[in-house]
Amino acid sequence: MAAGEHCPQFIRRFTELSSRVLVYLVNTVELDEASLLELMDVALANLSSQVQCVDEQVIDYLRMHYAEFSVLTTDGTPSQIEQIGEFFDKANIKLPSLMPLSPNVRSLFISRSLYDITYENLTLAIENKETVALDVIRETNETVYYYVLEHIDTYLRAVEGTSTTVNTCEQLVSLLKDLLGQGASEVAEHDIHVLARVIENAAPACQVSNLSDISKKVWPVLALYQRFPETFNNVSLYVDTFGIDENLAQLLSKKDAITEVESVEEDKKNTLAIKILTSRETLPDATTRANLVASLKLDKTVDISNITAEKGDLFALLLKHGIIADTVESYECLATTDWPTREAFICESTGFVNYMTPELVKPDLMAILTDDKINDSIKLVIVEKPADYVKDVGQEELKVLARLAVQYERTIPHSVLQKMAEAGTDTRDIISLLEPHLENLPSDKLFTILNAMGGEYSKLTKTGREHPRVPNTSADKALLECLIKRGIVSTYKDNDKDLITVNKKYK
Questions:
Q1: How many whole angstroms separate alpha carbon 160 and alpha carbon 154?
Q2: Through-space distance between the first and last CA atoms of the chain, rounded to whole angstroms
Q3: Residue 497 parent element (H or E)
Q4: Which of 466, 440, 468, 439 is nearest to 453 (CA)?
């Protein structure tokens, strides 16, 4: 056949009469490559209305060599082109590239969706080299658009890294609805993943303004990719349906505020505030939760019984923002936490100094007295009412309290002073605190304190031939003057700048 002079004429006639001419040419007759191409081109140019048989070999050959057929690339007539399109359509043969085709053939193949979905083919199909976003495709050519929707996975692979999936914000909702409409069973099993990829690769400005405009199935994906504004309405709708899950938590953590709260009823804001505050598992950062609730602009404080106590700065931050009341009840909620948590609350509180009681601060008395962050006004309350605060406290607390009393120049009751002396408090502090009592303190009580101090001071409780030596301070001199009046000390010498030598009366 290759040597025949009238092969093209034969194939032209053969094509008109037989439905197996293409199978014959590709699979049966022995032809060199150039001859086969020529005769296949003739066959395609003379297709009739009868259905041509094809097999895998024919389909593969056509997909591989279609760009070499002149009837497809240069000079096909409208009638030929239509017959070829009909044939390719019935055989479901899709071309790898639209580029080699003549304009008329390309237009036909686009109208019949007879091409592989690739980025290049899509740019040719919609004549747009800038973007092949779904909304641009839909606006340009609905045939292409619905073809893409039917093969959305292929489309997403084709445009990955080369084009956004959605170009304009206003079109996002309608596009997502189109995608959701592609078969109910497919939506449940597969389309959420597809939607996620479409949403993820949409233009940065694309958002769903109101969640109520789109199916709830899409909300978690929109939250994951932060594709809706954090308005009260949106957040509230989401929380009512899914709670504060990880996707919403990620969105809220980035935004750190909820907007459009001005016209919302107080009860609704309070309900959302409590849900946020109790979502530690997904919103572990206390600052984020506090800021989110603060952005709700509550008119009333949140009932403390609705908030679970936790270690950390949450309660201090809530106090700072006026979200909880500055009351003893708020502080008592922190009893099961730890000192750093209560410390942060106390430092933020302006009312603690007014409602603190010995019972309330007893577990943290030492910490309060020694913590540099705690305001002096709080420590002063304890120093000025030592008898109330030192019941059943340890020696260390007494020592610290004595030191603060000296620092703040406050008078300590002699009964407490005795406890301090018995606790081994620094004698310098005891002597300083003892000075205001010297004139009126009964001798037996004075001597009890001096005996408790031990050392040289215990020698000052009775007459004798000893010569005790005490520090050379004004308070010690005041003590010795008092003891002279009480018949214990005779004289003393303060020639040494550090120590005073005491001469006691013998009897």
A1: 10
A2: 153
A3: none
A4: 468
The whole-number pLDDT of residue 252 equals 97
- Joined together, the tokens standing for residue 76 give 């096909």
> Quick one: 500 exposed, middle or buried, by C-beta within 10 A (0-12, 13-18, 19+)?
buried
3-class secondary structure, 224: helix
As a three-state string, the secondary structure of 419-435 is: HHHHCCCCHHHHHHHHH
Taking the C-alpha atoms of residue 411 and residue 418, their distance in angstroms, rounded to an integer, is 13
Give the whole-angstrom CA distance, residue 261 versus residue 299.
12
User: How many residues does the structure list for the chain?
Assistant: 507
Over residues 51-68, the mean pLDDT reads 91
CA atoms within 13 A on the CB side of 500: 23
| DSSP string over 115-128 | B---HHHHHHHHT-
Residues 222-230: what's their mean pLDDT?
A: 96
User: SS3 for 489?
Assistant: strand
Q: Which residue has the tokens 């004595």?
A: 402
Residue 359 identity: E
Q: What is the mean pLDDT of the chain?
A: 92
Q: How far apart are alpha carbons 274 and 324 in whole angstroms?
A: 11
Answer whether residue 4 shows pLDDT above 70. no
Question: 259 - beta bridge partners?
Answer: 231
* Distance (Å, whole) CA 86 – CA 109: 10
Q: Give the tens place of pLDDT for each residue, 393-448.
A: 899 999 999 999 999 999 999 999 999 999 999 999 999 999 999 999 999 999 99
Q: What DSSP string describes 14-32?
A: HHHH-S-HHHIIIIIS---
Burial code of 331-351, b = ≥16 C-beta within 10 A, e = fewer?
A: bebbeebeeebbbbbbbbbee
Say whether 503 sits in a helix, a strand or coil: strand
DSSP secondary structure code for residue 336 in this structure: G
DSSP state of 324: S
Any idea which residue has 């959701």 for tokens?
180
In the DSSP assignment, the letter for residue 277 is H
What CA–CA distance (Å, rounded) separates 331 from 349?
10
Cα–Cα nearest to 144, from 169, 103, 181, 115? 115
Residue 274 CB burial class (10 angstroms; 0-12, 13-18, ≥19) = middle
Q: How far is CA 241 from CA 180, 216, 219, 245, 328, in A?
A: 19, 8, 9, 10, 36
DSSP 471: E
List 492's β-bridge partners, or say none. Answer: 502
> What CA–CA distance (Å, rounded) separates 232 from 235?
5
Placement of tokens 């025949």 in the chain: 4
> What confidence category does residue 5 fall into, taking pLDDT thresholds of 50, 70 and 90?
low
CB 26 within 8 A of CB 64: no
Q: Which of 264, 287, 268 is nearest to 277 (CA)?
A: 287
Residues 184-190: contacts with CB under 8 Å, at least 24 apart = 187/217
Q: How far, in Å, CA of 448 to CA of 422, rounded?
A: 10
